Amino acid sequence: MNTTHAIDPRLSSRYTSFDEVPVIDIGSLVDGSDIEKVAQEIGRTCATVGFFYIRNHGVPRSLIDAAYSQAQAFFNLPFEEKNRINITNSGPTLRGYIPTFAENVDPEKSRDFKECFDLGLDETHVAPFFGPNLMPERPVDFKPVLERYHSEMLLLARKLISAIALSLNLPADYFAKLQQHPITVQRLLHYPAQEGEVREEEIGIGAHTDYGFLTILAQDANGGLQVQNKEGEWISAPPIENTFVVNIGDLVQTFTNDLYKSTVHRVINTSGQARYSLPFFIDMDYDAVVDVLQNCTSEDNPARYTPYTSGQHKFRRYVNSYAHLKGTQVA
Ligand SMILES: O=C(O)CCC(=O)C(=O)O
Ligand SMILES: [Fe+2]
């Protein structure tokens, strides 16, 4: 990665050894040979970093490459064509195309210089965040390739989630029971090349935590993802071949009474190139209640959260970040 131009000093990150965002080999979780070992490692990392790379995840390289190709072909379409499937036309489904600056995850501080496309799998289930996708007419293989990619992500997420349950001394299917029809979003992201000095007021994606349970991210070779550590320092999470970046979201932090961290992160694309990434998000069922786990409380450490539903939390966070939802009443 070449840093081709000056960067606002407030945006600098400290490159540290990969140990800071650890790499976990999940081969024995994927093939079932030593689930417990991987679960313990994931648990330790969730309690310290909240972010980790996974290696030996079993997702074919050819499928990941195909998903990137479809994303690039889609974002290369004329704006008017993409804008026909704008998320604002999707009603409560909240799927489709999101132009630059239409979603700002840290709106007080920065505008997000990114465009997105969101799709889901469950097109018949009836609840907000579910329903028909808004699919583009081109590229022709967009729908089948991305649905396949999304399905693979869901399978992988379920394995990781069972490991998270085991790491908390819960039955492997503890969370799965609250994820019969989970809200999922497969997002495609395009961060256009930023010209001139990159300033904090306008970066790829502003500082935020993820709203859901778990995120699995494929990032291209251009870098730019930064993760905030306990001291408030920004640590780079550079691309590593044949890995995904996994992070836990707000729902896990609530379930675990802050034991596991929903870590703040952002993207600053100083590569001088267009950057693409493919984050997959999984929450719980829309109506599932997110409440502090009993085994994460004690007399000295009472519950720090009052229960809420998964859908309620996601919708609140959307209202804060989507221009077209500003001012919407939230239950
Ligand atoms: O593009 C990335 O590397 C991260 C994106 C992200 O944080 C998000 O979509 O929530
Ligand atoms: Fe994120």
From TrEMBL:
Domain spans labelled Fe2OG dioxygenase: 181-284
Pathway(s) the chain acts in: Alkene biosynthesis; ethylene biosynthesis via 2-oxoglutarate
Requisite cofactors: Fe(2+)
InterPro entries xrefs: DIOX_N, IPNS-like_FE2OG_OXY, IPNS-like_sf, Iron_ascorbate_oxido_reductase, Oxoglu/Fe-dep_dioxygenase_dom
Catalytic reactions of this protein: L-arginine + 2-oxoglutarate + O2 = guanidine + L-glutamate 5-semialdehyde + succinate + CO2; 2-oxoglutarate + O2 + 2 H(+) = ethene + 3 CO2 + H2O
TM ranges: none
Keywords: Ethylene biosynthesis, Iron, Metal-binding, Oxidoreductase
Name of one Pfam family that matches: DIOX_N
EC number: 1.13.12.19, 1.14.20.7
Hydrolase keyword on record: no
Protein family per UniProt: Belongs to the iron/ascorbate-dependent oxidoreductase family.
Name this protein carries in UniProt: 2-oxoglutarate-dependent ethylene/succinate-forming enzyme
Protein's organism: Vreelandella janggokensis
